[in-house]
Design goal:
Strand content of chain A: under 5%
Membrane topology (chain A): Multi-pass membrane protein
Distance between the termini of chain A: 43 Å
Structural class of chain B: alpha/beta
Number of strands of chain A: 0
Radius of gyration of chain B: 30 Å
Order of helices and strands of chain B: HEHEEHEEEEHEEHHHEHHHH
Shape of chain B: extended
Structural class of chain A: mainly alpha
Keywords (chain A): Endoplasmic reticulum, GPI-anchor biosynthesis, Membrane, Signal, Transmembrane, Transmembrane helix
Number of helices of chain A: 19
Largest sheet of chain A: none
Order of helices and strands of chain A: HHHHHHHHHHHHHHHHHHH
Number of helices of chain B: 11
Pathway (chain A): Glycolipid biosynthesis; glycosylphosphatidylinositol-anchor biosynthesis
Number of strands of chain B: 10
Largest sheet of chain B: 7 strands, mixed
Strand order of the largest sheet of chain B: 3-2-1-4-8-9-10
Organism (chain A): Astatotilapia calliptera
Distance between the termini of chain B: 115 Å
Radius of gyration of chain A: 23 Å
Family (chain A): Belongs to the PIGU family.
Oligomer: heterodimer
Helix content of chain B: 25-40%
Largest interface: A-B, 17 and 16 residues
């Protein structure tokens, strides 16, 4: 599998380099769907220029990156090629992580399946639902391909949006979780949270995965359960504390806290993007602003507990769902965030017989992606549309994403149900039963 | 041996010529410019285009060439589909006076008439590709006439039905012109509703302003023409055009007469003017100082002794002389600017960060790798 992977990497790097060299690079770097006020490269350059002039980069509303990004880029910002290569490297890093994730995930899952088979937990007619190593052989390569050759990632990389670095950190977190390294997983999760606040919700699936791996039962009355949670949270919060103090020492001031976290949470910049916040808050009365801000932000974190309770046996799927929820409901989403969870879809390809809305979802996603630049042009340049048009497409895009995620959720649960109860369900009198999701 | 009488006469003549030499140079300007702007579009705002074109006509007739006139018309009335007499714009009913003619040069037309373009013309900050006909190439010896007409309100003037310029912006633009030495004296005339509000905020020296109505009053239009179907002119500009038709390049009419144009009985609104920023007495300012491009030529057979300083004609106390702001001390800046230092992260930070990274690395992968490094 090394040869196809290498070929894939070469193709991906070539595409990105070719696009970067062409005149499209500046065009793409300004698209609001690809860059947001948090991730735009233009703002990084601006912030570092301010720093060179002796002014704090966080003064004014320009720069919203964390101090570690300042440290990472302050040498590189003058050299366009090298910075571009860092982003390509970030993308490759993600894909390699995903590759190894699934490479190591598969034996684990097959082992689980084997135990369940031997314990006769699966009824006879659901055997066709069981995954075999042969059909899953190419899944890691497919995941890598889905990530690298996804037009969203290519655009995000060519635009030099720091979303690529966020994705890289999240992928490293995922990899270290799968490999079983608690400390590294806590540290990478802390880095991801440090960049944007939302990955904090990934604590729950990470903890569930470790507990499953170490055979700690998920029971509120067990000491070992709470003890593990305390350990993990201690490592996580400790490294977060260390990182924040270290960032203080970079510039000697705390004003990165309101600029980065205050900006993400209070959403002052209402530039249109593919998310849901900007349109609402553009016409919000000041009196209600705080209330709706809380509502929208809680929406991101709210799904963690119910989903973890439902999916406590399947933490990997929980990570997928959680990443999707973050990408849809975060305050400044970009297509790079969308691409991160879209890369996981080949892993659940065995669910295809239970997916009901795939055609609709894929059509809507493709249509919306095509319509974004069109309606933007009509609104901003031609003046014959207005923001409602663009927001309609944004809404539709998010609805399609939500539909996709809920469809996979439904298919996953349905497969689990069939695995335990048999594929062809019969009622008590022997006639065929239908399954309804309530 | 010259006759002493002749000597006295020659001496007298030279004294007189020196005095008239003083009068010759008293106005201080050497060239004239005009910026004439009509800010409204659509057929029913025909009268604004007619206003601007009639001022254009007067100004051109009195000598300012097209190269020194920046004419901005927001819509094309002469070739409008609804014009029953195409290629004409009339300023008087019964089609007495066609102000369009065949030698009208419009510099900014249609959608090019925007607040941004207007301010750029005034301040001179145009892109390098702008042709000369679209630039106001005035210098510190130019007298500029600025005429604005359209729909306005208290403190603003509407451009093209979609944007507006405020009196503060206009005042700041004039101050920029003053600081860049782009005018000697400026005459600002505005014919809109509540026009006096537009000159309230001026604060640069040497500006005289006239408006067709006070704050709270509307400027009214003059008369409709039933054949064309719209009002042809606004009252203030109509009476001003009548007044200007009597001016010829050698007229000695002064600004006080212009202030009397269109009293309340004719105009219904009260025209206003502002002269507190203007250095000279308005009574000594000729109409042709702004509306015409009068080249002062005086034929003389005598030699005039110019070594004595020129005395102003009035002989009054000179008012306080306004001087231009200091130029930017470029030489100081060039030689004394500190070299820009790049920012470097503090050493403690680098140390701390890399120690942490190494710690994590060794914790994860074991101390056994240490011996490979050292």
């Amino acid at each position: 599998m090394a040869a196809p992977l290498t070929l894939l990497l070469i193709v991906a790097v070539t595409i990105r380099a070719a696009l970067f060299r062409s005149s499209l690079a500046e065009l793409i770097a300004e698209r609001v769907e690809v860059v947001s006020p948090i991730t735009a490269w233009k703002r990084v350059v601006e912030g570092l220029a301010l720093l060179d002039l002796g002014v704090s980069p966080y003064s004014g509303d320009v720069f919203h990156e964390t101090p570690l990004i300042i440290y990472m880029f302050h040498f590189l910002v003058d050299y366009a090629e090298i910075t571009f290569m860092t982003f390509v490297f970030g993308a490759l890093c993600v894909c390699i992580c995903f590759f190894f994730i699934y490479l190591s995930l598969m034996p684990f899952q097959f082992r689980k399946q084997k135990f369940a088979l031997e314990a006769d937990r699966y009824p006879m007619d659901s055997l066709e639902l069981i995954r075999s190593p042969k059909e899953m052989y190419y899944v890691p390569l497919k995941v890598a391909m889905f990530y690298l050759l996804n037009p969203f990632t290519i655009l995000s990389c060519v635009a030099k949006s720091t979303c690529g670095l966020n994705n890289a950190v999240l992928a490293l977190f995922f990899l270290s979780t799968i490999k079983g390294n608690v400390l590294l997983s806590a540290i990478f999760l802390c880095l991801a949270t440090y960049q944007s606040i939302y990955p904090i919700t990934l604590c729950a699936p990470a903890m569930l995965y470790f507990m499953q791996r170490q055979y700690i039962p998920v029971n509120f009355h067990r000491v070992s359960f709470w003890w593990f949670i305390v350990q993990y949270l201690f490592m996580y919060l400790g490294s977060l504390f260390v990182l924040i103090c270290l960032s203080f020492f970079l510039l000697g001031s705390w004003d990165y806290l309101p600029s980065v976290y205050g900006f993400i949470l209070s959403v002052p910049d209402l530039t249109p993007n593919i998310g849901l916040f900007w349109y609402f808050f553009a016409e919000m009365f000041e009196h209600f602003r705080l209330f709706f801000l809380c509502v929208f932000q809680i929406n991101v974190f709210f799904y963690t507990i119910p989903l973890s309770i439902k999916l406590k046996e399947h933490p990997v799927f929980l990570i997928f769902m959680q990443l999707a929820v973050i990408s849809i409901f975060k305050s400044y989403p970009t297509v790079g965030d969308v691409a991160l969870y879209l890369a996981f879809l080949p892993v659940w390809s065995h669910l295809h017989r239970f997916l009901r809305n795939i055609f609709l979802v894929s059509c809507v996603l493709l249509a919306c992606s095509a319509l974004f630049p069109v309606l933007w042009h009509l609104w901003i340049y031609a003046g014959s549309a207005n923001s409602n048009f663009y927001y309609a497409i944004t809404l539709l895009f998010n609805v399609a994403q939500i539909l996709l995620v809920s469809d996979y959720f439904y298919a996953f649960l349905r497969r689990e149900h069939h695995l335990t109860n048999g594929l062809y369900l019969k009622r008590k009198d022997g006639s065929e039963a239908t399954l309804i999701l309530k | 041996n010259i006759n002493p009488c002749v000597q006295i006469i020659i001496h007298l003549l030279s004294v007189i010529s020196q005095n008239s030499a003083g009068q010759f140079f008293s106005s201080g300007h050497t060239n004239n410019w005009a910026v004439l702007v009509c800010t409204s579009r659509f057929w029913f705002n025909y009268r604004h285009v007619a206003n601007t074109l009639s001022v254009y006509r007067s100004v051109k007739r009195l000598g300012i060439p097209d190269s020194h006139i920046v004419l901005m018309l927001a819509d094309d009335m002469a070739c409008n589909h609804r014009n029953p007499k195409p290629a004409t714009v009339f300023s008087h009913k019964n089609m007495e006076l066609n102000v369009y003619g065949d030698d009208v040069e419009v510099d900014y037309r249609g959608y090019e008439v925007t607040v941004e373009n207007f301010l750029r013309v005034l301040t001179g900050r145009l892109p390098p590709s702008t042709p000369r006909s679209k630039r106001l190439l005035s210098d510190d010896r130019s007298n500029i006439l600025i005429y604005l007409t359209g729909h306005g309100g208290n403190g603003f003037l509407k451009f093209q039905d979609s944007e507006e310029i405020s009196n503060v912006e206009l005042a700041d633009a004039f101050e920029q012109m003053w600081q860049k030495r782009r005018y000697n004296e400026l005459l600002f005339i505005i014919d809109t509703c509540q026009g006096a509000s537009m000159y309230e905020r001026f604060y640069s020296p040497n500006i005289m302003a006239l408006a067709s109505s006070q704050v709270g009053e509307d400027s009214l239009s003059h008369q409709p023409d039933l054949a064309i179907g719209v009002h042809l002119m606004d009252r203030y500009t109509f009476y001003m055009l009548e007044f200007l038709e009597d001016i010829h390049p050698a007229s000695k009419t002064n600004m006080n007469d212009l202030f009397k144009v269109c009293p309340k009985s004719q105009c219904v609104s009260t025209p206003g003017h502002r002269t507190d920023l203007f250095l000279r007495d308005p009574g000594s300012v000729l109409i042709t100082d702004f509306f015409g491009s009068v080249r002062k030529v005086e034929l003389t057979m005598d030699a005039i002794n110019l070594t004595d300083p020129i005395n102003p004609v009035n002989g009054e106390e000179q008012k306080e002389v306004y001087s231009y702001a200091d130029q930017l001390p470029v030489s100081e800046i060039i030689h004394q600017k500190p070299k820009q230092k790049d920012w470097h992260p503090p050493d403690g930070f680098i140390l701390g960060l890399w120690t942490l990274i190494l710690l994590v690395f060794f914790k994860t992968y074991g101390i056994k790798h240490l011996k490979h490094i050292f």
